[in-house]
Design brief:
The chain is of the alpha+beta class. 22% of the residues lie in helices and 31% in strands. The strands form five sheets. It has a ten-stranded mixed β-sheet, with helices on both faces. A six-stranded mixed β-sheet has the order 9-10-13-14-17-18, covered by helices on one side. A four-stranded antiparallel β-sheet has the order 22-21-24-25, with no helix packed on it.
């Protein structure tokens, strides 16, 4: 009897300990189902969710199980996802993670591994980074994205952590004025790498609540810091508070909001593609100056309507539908915005012959790319989306290209033949 009672106490202690590490709120069918989810990234601006964007996201789960990860709050998403949006789902479970032990608990990891969709709530991105980065949860999340190729997304802090780079808020928040007046303010804290590995978001940093408060200046500073650190073109994606940005498997970013009733916009920002793209003044305790002839940043401002008819192509960062191009620049800590025509960046070679005589597959690919051609190939060159030569090969041309050692992302394959040159977009997943 004493042994049985002691065992009972141990069991209660174990349950209590795990309850302190995480809290579960479950809605729906308890038996797990395996469906066929499809890839997608959903980024919400931080206020109440846009229903159309959420329906787009949940439909990607193909009737499966949805897991909401958060580090504060309760079950506010459960009924909204499970029954309010008219999307058939097997279950919705909110897991409130209280510490790293909760993030790596076997029950939590099993729920994440079995999920057909994962959503990050708002809150404090610093806790997401502290609890989820560099551990078994981190591995499970990236497996969900890149192996299972299932949808993931988040709002506010949950959107802030989706890029390769992220404002980690480890030292608290920072306003646009504070960041512009001192780009190395301790609160301008940027995390990067070895966290979420989302296709189309490499070399990218997101920002949320863009119109309340105005975060254009803060975001510009974050991008300037990334350019300075990596010596490469950096990108930004931003959403006004009520805007949803939905990215499909081809890199098309569709935006949802309530424009023109409200000024709902998404922003797709990139450092100017000039060879000398670096800020003129980027020093601690000095106001940022990043002018470059009043074109430091190339920005596509996209109205977000309920129809989801407006979009931007993240596979090229050159083409959009329904928006307008702007130039942004900073002079002694003051941000300027001007509507302009599209910047003319150095472009890859355009088609010079019928490219249908060249077949490239599979694309996207995670390892090898096969090439079949009905013409004589003379040279292949593989460039990053920012124009850096990554690989080249002259005759004899192999039928397969090994991409295993390259980071995930978008590349351009320039093919030279006896008929001319052609360029193909390649996605390494």
């Amino acid at each position: 009897m004493k042994y049985s009672y002691f065992s009972y106490l141990l069991l209660l202690s174990y349950i209590s300990l795990n309850a302190q590490n995480y809290t579960s709120y479950f809605t729906g069918q308890t038996e797990n189902v395996a469906t066929n989810p499809s890839f997608g990234i959903c980024l919400m601006g931080g206020a109440s969710e846009n229903d159309q964007a959420m329906q787009w996201f949940l439909n990607k789960a193909d009737g499966g199980d949805v897991v909401i990860l958060r580090t504060s709050g309760t079950d506010g998403y459960n009924d909204y996802f499970y029954s309010d949006l008219g999307v058939n789902l097997n279950s919705v479970e909110t897991l409130v993670i209280h510490n790293e032990a909760g993030a790596t608990d076997p029950y939590v990891l099993n729920a994440v591994e079995n999920a057909e969709a994962i959503w990050f709530a708002g809150g404090n991105q610093a806790t997401y980074v502290n609890f989820f980065k560099g551990n078994a949860m981190n591995d499970a999340l990236n497996n969900h994205i890149n192996v299972k190729q299932a949808p993931i997304g988040g709002t506010s802090a949950g959107m802030a952590i989706m890029g390769e780079f992220y404002f980690d808020a480890i030292n608290g928040s920072v306003t646009s004025d504070e960041a512009l007046s001192n780009p190395f303010n301790p609160s301008v804290s940027i995390g990067h790498g070895s966290f979420l590995d989302n296709p189309f978001l490499n070399q990218t940093i997101t920002d949320t609540h863009y119109n309340n408060p105005d975060r254009k200046g803060r975001h510009s500073v974050l991008i300037s810091r990334i350019v300075d650190e990596t010596q490469e073109v950096a990108y930004g994606i931003a959403a006004d508070e009520f805007v949803g940005i939905c990215v499909d498997e081809n890199g098309e970013a569709i935006v949802f909001g309530e424009y023109p009733e409200f000024d709902d916009y998404a922003y797709f920002i990139q450092a100017n593609c000039e060879e000398d793209l670096f800020p003129e003044v980027l020093q601690a305790n000095q106001s940022l100056t990043w002018n470059k002839g009043n074109k430091a940043l190339k920005v596509y401002q996209l109205p977000a309507a309920s129809s989801g008819s407006n979009s931007f192509d993240l596979s090229t960062w050159e083409e959009g539908s329904g928006g307008e191009w702007q130039a942004w620049w900073i002079e002694e800590g003051e941000l300027f915005v001007e509507n302009t025509t599209d910047f003319e960046c150095p472009s890859f070679t355009v088609d010079a012959f019928d490219s249908n005589v060249i077949h490239i597959y599979p694309n996207p690919t995670s390892d090898f790319l096969s090439i079949e051609a009905e013409i004589n190939l003379e040279q292949l060159k593989l460039y990053s989306i920012t124009g850096q030569l990554k690989w080249s090969k002259s005759k004899p041309i192999d039928s397969k290209i090994d991409l295993r050692n390259l980071p995930k992302g978008i590349y351009m394959l320039e093919i030279k033949s006896d008929l001319g040159r052609v360029t193909k977009k390649i996605i390494k997943k």
